[in-house]
Amino acid sequence: MKYRRVGKSGLKISEISIGAWLTYGGSVESARAERIIKTAIDRGVNFVDIADIYARGEAEKVVGAAVKGMNRSDLVISSKLFWPMSDNINDRGLSRKHIMESIEKSLKRIGTDYLDIYFCHRWDPETEVEEIVRAMDDLVHQGKVLYWGTSVWSAAQIEQVIGEANRFGGYRPSVEQPRYNMIDRHIEPEILSTCERNGMGLTVWSPLAQGLLTGKYNDGVPTGSRAATTNWLKKDLNAENIETVRRLSAVASELGITLGQLALAWILRLPQISCVLTGATDPKQVEENLKATDIQFDAETLEKIEAILDNTPVVQM
């Protein structure tokens, strides 16, 4: 396994990491989820990413059970808060009240004394930035959180929160967690450079575009697949993208790798990326995904891939 620093912090995480979104505590039964997590950790994965909203706290419980008895210092565990966890009007957002109460609930569900990273899962337009920063800063001082981050924030929002932290000398966010893959490259024009300039790492989710970049939808939508059971692929599952994926599959075949490995390695071509967060429904998928860390593309292959994608974002002036 290869490891990268999270931005300019001293924290190092595995290039391929495990995320619990839409799987643990939900579609993947707990015993299998524990086998997947343990397989990943046995192979050198040290970062496990969760959120309180994933299966309404059940994902945190599953991960906690899977890592129970392991050396806590060997692991980097993150969780997130923002989305409503109940009908309580204050059980949502990024108010100080919700932050302070949510961290206690997450720690209890996971069975740990601290989180390595705590993410603000979305921007909260109803809470002043100073309130958010001071609450997260307090959690770091209390030892309940070692680093904190943002997730799916815009470049302007990241700049604003960094500026507020600098204003009173508070702990700044160390990492942003955006969606990023061959189909969705929206972070390239501004977010990537904003994070790099401010010393923030990026732990990216949906690297395989919910399975689209594995080729499983090249010949239609399989029964029971994510596209058949959720709306997450509604926008991306179209004829143009399917044709792109088919052409990428040919490139992967020429290289002797899977399409999924090609997609993961393509993301890791960027040094600003700290890790790609992968989901898995079987330990074998973990084994296959981890092979992507050994893949290096030459300039000719990268040019071929870019020609197929033909979607490099243009910076608006």
Short key terms for the protein model shown above:
globular; about 325 residues; TIM Barrel; 11 helices; alpha/beta; two-stranded antiparallel ribbon
Give the SSE map.
Elements (H helix, E strand, L loop, with lengths): L2 E3 L6 E3 L1 E4 L10 H13 L4 E3 L8 H10 L8 E6 L14 H15 L4 E6 L8 H14 L2 E7 L3 H14 L6 E3 L13 H7 L3 E4 L21 H4 L9 H17 L3 H9 L5 E6 L4 H8 L8 H11 L8
Can you tell me about this structure?
The protein is α/β, with parallel strands linked by helices. The chain has a domain at 3-208 and 269-282: NADP-dependent oxidoreductase domain (TIM Barrel). The chain contains eleven helices and ten strands. It has helices spanning 30-42, 58-67, 96-110, 129-142, 155-168, 191-197, 226-229, 239-255, 259-267, 283-290, 299-309; strands spanning 3-5, 12-14, 16-19, 47-49, 76-81, 115-120, 145-151, 175-177, 201-204, 273-278. The strands form two sheets. Strands 3-4-5-6-7-8-9-10 form an eight-stranded parallel barrel, surrounded by five helices. A two-stranded antiparallel ribbon has the order 1-2. Helix 1 (30-42) packs across helix 2, helix 1 (30-42) runs parallel beside helix 10 and helix 8 runs antiparallel to helix 11 (299-309). The longest helix has 17 residues, at 239-255. The mean pLDDT is 93.
Quick structural overview:
This protein has helices at residues 30-42, 58-67, 96-110, 129-142, 155-168, 191-197, 226-229, 239-255, 259-267, 283-290, 299-309; strands at residues 3-5, 12-14, 16-19, 47-49, 76-81, 115-120, 145-151, 175-177, 201-204, 273-278.
